[in-house]
Amino acid sequence: MASGLLTDLYEINMAASYLRRGMIGRATFSLFVRRLPANRGFLVTAGLDDCLEFLEGFHFTVTELDYLERTGRYGPDVLRSLERMRFTGERLGGPRGVGGVRR
To answer: Which residues in 67-103 are b (16+ Cβ under 10 Å) and which e?
Structure first.
């Protein structure tokens, strides 16, 4: 389930703030490790496929948007933008299913 309400309210408030200011450009999110912990020769990652699957289906349902409207925190323009919001990005890096990166 890729419910928009599975994020915290802070992120929705930030999105609303950006939308009100006309900040609708492309956003970039990076996941990286600066260095491996001492005495470690590899790093295992888990859940990346689940995260990407969530992002690909991310949306707000009509019920969720009704809830957000009832909070009184968001105006009609923000709610319309949230309704249309979909992940349209791309993954740059290793292939899907990679479980770790060697040093």
So the answer is: ebeeeeebeeebbebbeeeeeeeeeeeeeeeeeeeee
